[in-house]
Write a structure and sequence with these properties.
This protein is mainly α. The chain contains 6 helices and 3 strands; from the N terminus they run αββαααβαα. It folds into 2 domains: 153 residues; 35 residues, no CATH class.
């Protein structure tokens, strides 16, 4: 199969892998810088990461990795359906980030000795930007799968169950035929030549 036929497949796989990395990063990057003396969840904090504020970045990173496996394993229309699901996830992540629900946290508790508020919490751009980048990567992968998923190459016969294989065409080279039979899990010494 020409490399140009495999390009959409590898674009989708790479986009999903990068989305997983971006979401994992978004969970550990700072989303809010808090003023000194702020107590959050019983701890004195200076910053709040995405993992402190919301629970969804890591599960969605794992979903992106699972989607890589599904992209490689599924065929035809099932890949297009996966693409539509990934587009929906992309929209959902963007809504979660831009909707501001991640910033609904009580920052009014002060540590002893910090009776006055020395400043206001400030939102950073790094964590949300990583999450939005992941949403964009999810959208790229979803669009490619929805558009070209049914035409992308599939796993070859050597990855299918033995009952799924169709008659193998012999190449005319006995050595090559023996090696191909071994690769497919057959015992070339028991078949008739």
């Amino acid at each position: 199969m020409p490399d140009s036929d495999k390009r959409p497949l590898w674009i989708a796989v790479a986009a999903l892998a990068l989305a997983a990395v971006a979401l994992w990063g978004a969970s550990s990057l700072t989303w809010i810088d808090v003023p000194p003396g702020t107590v959050v969840g019983g701890e004195l904090r200076e910053e709040l990461s995405g993992g402190d504020l919301v629970a969804w970045p890591v599960p969605l990173a794992l979903l992106a990795l699972a989607a890589v496996a599904a992209t490689l394993a599924l065929r035809g229309v099932a890949r297009r359906v996966l693409g539509a699901v990934l587009l929906a996830v992309a929209v959902w992540v963007a809504v979660l980030v831009l909707g501001g629900s991640a910033y609904d946290v009580d920052l009014s508790t002060r540590a002893p000795g910090y009776d006055t508020i020395p400043g206001e919490p400030t939102r950073t751009w790094t964590g949300p930007a990583a999450a939005l980048a992941a949403a964009a990567l999810y959208a790229v992968a979803g669009a490619v799968l929805a558009w070209r998923g049914h035409r992308m190459p599939r796993m070859g016969a050597k990855y299918s169950a033995p009952g799924d294989r169709k008659g193998r065409v012999r190449s005319g080279n006995p050595d090559a035929d023996l090696w191909n039979a071994l690769s497919e899990g057959e015992d070339p010494t028991t078949r008739d030549r």
